[in-house]
Design goal:
The structure holds 2 protein chains of 2 kinds. Chain A contains 9 helices and 21 strands. Chain A is α+β, with helices and mostly antiparallel strands. In chain A, β1 and β2 form a beta hairpin. Chain B contains 8 helices and 24 strands. In chain B, the strands form 5 sheets. In chain B, strands 1, 2, 3, 4, 5, 6 and 7 form a 7-stranded mixed beta sheet that branches. In chain B, a hairpin with a 2-residue loop joins β16 and β17. Chain B is globular and about 70 Å long. The chains are: A alpha+beta, B alpha+beta. At the A-B interface, β2, β3, α2, β5 and β6 of A face β1, β2, β3, α2 and α3 of B.
Chain lengths: 432, 454
């Protein structure tokens, strides 16, 4: 890294190198059986440099000569934006626990055993079901260094269990599934099996549903799948800066139900989204986005913050290119209502677990529309069965303006969202 | 041929039922705008490779960045496969192929200077931003040249190079907290002129984004729906293409019953094709990532299930022939069964005949996205209008449509004469996204199609 900085420093005013080194080992199951073991090693390096006040960018995976990387970045700097921020010069960060050496010591046979245990439990509950999924462990090292003296380094472990079940009857396919992940080994896979079996039990029979408006409970999976993409987009400092966020002029205003509070929190120990610093070497911190219904702040990286006359909130994230404002781990505060109480409260309604196509609508406006891949009909306070061939449409801002209840059933989804169920007044249902 | 000898000698030194090595080398460039700002002008170089091994029905896979790791990775892949394999390997044989395929191009994007690319995009951006009512824009352009070197225990050694490029533009209009967007996607296998001369189309999306601010939302329910060739292409990809991928079927006895060859899925007029051997499209190639020559496959012929898409493993397990559809997005993934160029063959209905009998329906155009759970699927339009009394009527907000594979294909009651291929999309499956594919169709009419709305 130092060599790249040294070479870049000869032609550019400033430079920053970001390097990720990782090894990941997924053990994959297909059709209820162990199918494949993989080992993926990867090294990638990204260079940002400032030449004549303008940003240049190049990245490489695999072997590349430092001089080649620098010349690629110099070439792009002719077209780059005018840089109005400094690369951070920080060298120490508050510690966040994201590394557990035990992850590297979980053997392949242990991982196989965890997966097979889920499959055995699910198959014992429902014959004919076929499970597919993976148990994965990995270690990644993140390093950032800049010519301004900034240096950040962090080693992170990850362990995850994901399993889907597919039950086919002629003219009917049912999907169920669960995913859990952590920076520590997950030594007990029975909660994954339990969640899959819960979904199977609720979806055993199909229930009729008619078009119309009705109350709806989004389960934690449902919240993560339907409601969060529009909010993540609307709180993004870049969307706000561009004037494309419905919340752009709503800061400090109450826009959501007073029971709703949401933060981005990368400081929770051993959560996969946690980190001591963001992908630009800024300290990562807990940021409240919604406090009891009030819009508190938007999230920024360095570049966007400089353009907006704001400061970075430690949300510079990279997903294949230059940093941009990114969420680490969203936490929606849990409420008091149990899921059972919410269901009991419904005369006629819908529970949404999984949606298909929710992200294909006009997310910017808060709209979503999709097919209920896994959802249940409620009649007179009881679940009457699974709904099929059912479309729902709604707008996140209308749905969350006033909600009927927020659940006490918070859980993490895939390690990046922690949310309870949310019980909303009405959603438009279109059914055959 | 030092590389050929090196790879084949590594393979020969190991014991497995099948081994393959793939090496990737790629260079790509990317331009990304948000509103007036060019947010990213970047270049990427990537090298890496992987080894996949099959032992007694079990697979091992190891990927690496440095060729120094080749021997170790190969040994690891075999060790992993041996750990998994408890049965018998089934893998269709193929003849050994030694070939070099150069990248095809008409106007090579790699020879177009970055400054030219930027000035073209600057002009499109200006056209959109100057339109009254447009709040902001987003533009993403990328091109990539990639060389894949493949060697296998069959004795094959294939070098294939390809050039791919794509452009996505979005115009975003905003008024009183209402935000609407319209996009345009184009792509091609090695012809930069695809992204040139789009001024009128770009002006069109900006106009539509503004018009959409005042458009009403459709009432949810079932409608007679007419799809334009672009959206019908997405429809055929989601509605039937994925279900034709044999890896969803081969290990599932119930799915094998459902997808039995000869089963009727649609009317006599319905013919659905997939094939990388269809030349000149984004999903075209000569050999897949298992060294199988590309083919053209009739998935549905005259309404009846005719064939499906295979890798060498799924073909062997189902006693059918490999179709050359095993593709990997890059060296960090093993190949899986994927689509290539998927389309509905043209029929004979004119557009006017298609809409003339519809009292109230929806005309849905262009795409925003699509997804499937094999049985049920959704696909979303980028542009939509009501059809009233046989005529195209008012614009409505874009719609998300949904179907069920057991009924929706039967409900196609008219197929147009105007086949067009959409090259602007990419396909995602099992974490491998976006894979270059193309899809297309003529205009089609679907009865009783579920449309989401208020």
């Amino acid at each position: 890294m130092q060599e790249i900085l040294d070479i870049a420093g000869r032609s550019a005013e400033r430079a920053e190198v970001f390097r990720v080194t990782s090894v990941r080992t997924p053990v994959q199951f297909e059709a209820n059986r162990l199918k494949q073991i993989q080992t993926k090693e990867s090294v990638s390096v990204a260079l940002r440099l400032v030449k004549d006040g303008k940003m240049g960018f190049a990245q490489a995976s695999g072997n590349i000569r430092p001089a080649d990387l620098v010349s690629m970045a110099l070439e792009t700097s002719q077209f780059g934006y005018q840089v109005n921020f400094d690369f951070p010069s920080l060298r120490s960060f508050e510690e966040v626990a994201v590394f557990d050496p035990q992850v590297e010591h979980i053997g392949i046979d242990g991982m196989i055993g965890l997966g097979q245990a889920v499959i055995d439990a699910v198959c014992a509950n429902t014959s004919g079901i076929l499970c597919e999924g993976s148990i994965s462990r990995g270690t990644a090292t993140f390093e950032i260094a800049s010519t301004g003296g900034g240096h950040a380094s962090c080693k992170r472990t990850n362990f995850s269990i994901s399993m889907d079940g597919m039950l086919v009857r002629d003219g009917d396919i049912l999907y169920v599934g669960d995913i859990r992940s952590s920076c520590r080994p997950i030594l007990d896979s029975s909660p994954v099996a339990g969640e899959i079996i819960r979904q199977l039990d609720l979806a055993r029979n199909n229930a009729p549903i008619k078009s119309g408006n009705m109350p709806v409970i989004f389960t934690p999976f449902g919240v993560a799948g339907c409601l969060l993409s529009p909010l993540i987009s609307a709180f993004n400092g870049k969307t706000v800066l561009d004037g494309a966020s419905p919340l752009k002029d709503k800061k400090n205003m109450v826009v959501f139900d007073s029971g709703l509070s949401m933060s981005d929190d990368p400081t929770i120990p051993y959560q996969p989204g946690s980190t001591p610093f963001d992908d630009e070497g800024m300290p990562a911190r807990r940021n409240t986005l919604i406090d009891h219904g009030k819009v508190v702040q938007f999230y920024y990286d360095l570049h966007t913050a400089a353009l907006a006359g704001s400061s970075s909130t430690g949300n510079g994230g990279r997903s294949g290119g230059m940093p941009s404002p990114s969420i680490h781990a969203l936490v929606i505060e849990g409420g008091k209502a149990s899921q059972a109480d919410m269901i009991k409260d419904m005369k006629e309604g819908l529970i949404i677990e999984q949606m298909m196509g929710a992200d294909q609508g006009n997310i910017l406006n808060g709209d979503f529309s999709g097919n209920v891949l896994l959802g249940y009909k409620v009649d007179h306070g009881e679940i009457s069965g699974r709904v099929k061939d059912t479309m729902v449409s709604g707008n996140v801002y209308q749905l969350l303006k006033e909600v009927l209840a927020i659940g006490s059933d918070s859980r993490w989804i895939a390690g990046y969202v922690d949310t309870p169920s949310i019980y909303c007044t009405a959603i438009a249902v279109a059914a055959k | 041929m030092p590389m050929q000898n090196r790879l084949l000698s590594v393979i020969r030194g190991l014991k497995a039922d099948y081994i393959e090595v793939r090496l990737d080398e790629s260079q790509s460039s990317r331009l990304f705008y948000r509103g007036e700002r060019l947010e990213e002008a970047g270049r990427t170089a990537s090298t890496g490779g992987c080894v996949r091994a099959l032992v007694k029905g079990g697979w091992g896979f190891a990927s690496f960045n440095s060729l120094d790791r080749l021997s170790e990775s190969a040994a690891l892949a075999v060790e992993q496969a041996t750990h998994v394999g408890k049965g018998q390997s089934e893998f269709s044989p193929t003849q050994a192929i030694i070939d070099t395929v150069e990248a095809e191009y008409i106007k090579n994007p790699l020879e177009v200077p970055l400054s030219t690319k930027k000035s073209i995009l600057d002009e499109y951006n200006r056209i959109m931003l100057e339109m009254p009512g447009i709040q902001t824009t987003s533009i993403g352009y990328g091109d990539i040249k990639k060389k894949v070197t493949f060697a296998s225990s069959d004795g094959s050694y294939i070098e294939q190079s390809r050039i791919d490029l794509n452009l996505r533009l979005s115009a975003i209009a905003s008024r009183d907290g209402n935000v609407q967007q319209v996009g345009l996607s184009v792509g091609s296998k090695g012809d930069f002129s695809t992204v040139e001369g789009l001024q009128e189309k770009v002006r069109g999306i900006a106009q539509r984004a503004v018009a959409m601010l005042s458009a009403a939302e459709v009432k949810g329910g079932t409608y007679t729906v007419v799809l334009d060739p672009v959206l019908a292409g997405v429809f055929v990809h989601e509605a039937f293409g994925h279900l034709s991928e044999a890896d969803h079927i081969y290990e599932n006895p119930q799915m094998r019953d459902i997808m039995v060859l000869g089963r009727r899925f649609g009317g006599q007029h319905l013919n659905i094709v997939d094939g990388a051997a269809v030349p000149g499209l984004r999903g075209s190639y000569k050999y897949d990532d298992e060294g199988t020559p590309a083919s053209k496959t009739y998935l549905i012929k005259e309404g009846v299930l005719n064939s499906r898409l295979h890798s060498r493993e799924t073909a062997a397990r189902m006693g059918e022939k490999p179709t050359g559809n095993a593709r990997a997005i890059n060296y960090t993934y093993p190949p899986i069964v994927r689509m290539t160029n998927t389309y509905i063959e043209p029929g004979s209905t004119t557009f006017n005949d298609m809409i003339s009998g519809i009292n109230e329906g929806v005309y849905a155009k262009d795409w925003y996205g699509g997804t499937t759970s094999l049985e049920m699927f959704t696909f979303s339009a980028g542009e939509a209008y009501m059809i009233r009394d046989g005529k195209i009527a008012e614009m409505i907000r874009p719609v998300v449509l949904s179907g069920n594979v057991f009924t929706t294909l039967h409900n196609i009651d008219a197929i147009g004469d105007d086949l067009d291929m959409n090259q602007g999309g990419g396909c995602g499956k099992a974490g491998q996204s976006p894979l270059p594919v193309s899809n297309g169709s003529p205009h089609i009419r679907i009865q009783n199609c579920l449309v989401g709305g208020k």
